[in-house]
Write a structure and sequence with these properties.
Organism: Streptomyces harbinensis
InterPro entries: Phenazine_PhzF-like
Family: Belongs to the PhzF family.
GO cellular component, one term: cytoplasm
Number of helices: 5
Pfam family, one: PhzC-PhzF
Helix content: 10-25%
CATH class of the largest domain: Alpha Beta
Distance between the termini: 28 Å
CATH superfamily of the largest domain: Diaminopimelate Epimerase, Chain A, domain 1
Number of domains: 2
Structural class: alpha+beta
Shape: globular
């Protein structure tokens, strides 16, 4: 069984957000999925299974962190689509049945892949007690992103504040921070960083799903439906965003950096360990 590591939302290796990708013929035991994700030990590993008998989706897709399964993941979806397209397994518009409904991908003429995701609903909320102290910066606005994401979206003063954060979030928290770009010549419109200890990720390098909330926020602020976001992690990455009503289109490229054989297959017993 082949397993691949794909860097997503980047056009070069060792940047963007790496994701594991495993294409399966059918769903194995849940425990095996979790152990593979823990072994890969990236922010997410994606598992895809072809579907038959469904008119609305071509593959089932699940995303697992090293500790839990998540509702929505952009970079691992981009990575999966990249594998499907580059291996000739799929072409054109590909639809995935997920825990967040059906999402779709399509590859453009230049190689960029566009993800068609639901837009996250934003609800202004009071800042949780002690949030400014944990972030090391004073929030300008705070939003709940709804059950699909379950993240707290925090607007900060400026790009320099976002870049300079050294936060100490609570173990259960999932926080997106954002601010406008420092200037019009930056090549992007807004910046972000994502801290997700609540799902076992201290800081996510590039978070596609977060842009389903970031896109609508900055579209409303700027009056523009097409924007570019830059995630200011150590690896860094760029996400092109287009807001279309209750959908958010996210575009980027990906690079396969590792391809190998997964020797511990689903038929291998995983229920016991020697001590």
């Amino acid at each position: 069984m082949r397993i691949r590591i794909v860097d997503a939302f980047t056009d070069r290796p060792f940047a963007g957000n790496p994701a594991g990708v495993v294409l399966l013929e059918s769903w194995p035991a849940e425990e095996w999925l979790r152990r593979v994700a823990a072994e890969v030990n990236l922010s997410e590993t994606a598992f895809a299974v072809p579907l038959t008998g469904r008119d609305d989706a071509d593959f089932a897709l699940r995303w697992l962190t090293p500790t839990t399964e998540v509702e929505l993941c952009g970079h691992a979806t981009l990575a999966t689509a990249h594998v499907l397209y580059t291996t000739g397994t799929a072409a054109g518009r590909v639809r995935f049945a997920t825990r967040s409904g059906v999402v779709a991908t399509e590859q453009g003429a230049g190689g960029a892949i566009t993800l068609d995701f639901p837009a996250a609903p934003l609800t202004p909320v009071p800042a949780p007690p002690g949030l400014a102290g944990r972030l090391g910066a004073e929030p300008r606005a705070v939003y709940d992103t709804g059950p699909g994401l379950g993240d707290l979206l925090v607007e900060l003063a400026d790009e320099a504040t976002v870049a300079g954060l050294d936060p100490r979030p609570e173990p259960h928290e999932k926080i997106i921070v954002t601010a406008p770009a420092a200037g019009p010549g930056a090549g992007y419109d807004f910046v972000s960083r994502c801290f997700f200890p609540g799902v076992g990720i201290a800081e996510d390098p590039v978070t596609g799903s977060a842009h389903t909330a970031l896109g609508p926020l900055w579209a409303e602020r700027t009056g523009r439906s097409r924007l570019t976001g830059r995630q200011l992690s150590a690896r860094g990455g760029t996400v092109a965003v287009e807001v279309r009503g209750d959908r958010t289109l996210l575009s980027g490229t990906a690079v396969t950096v590792i391809e190998g054989e997964l020797l511990a297959g689903p038929d291998q017993a995983v229920g016991s360990q020697s001590t």
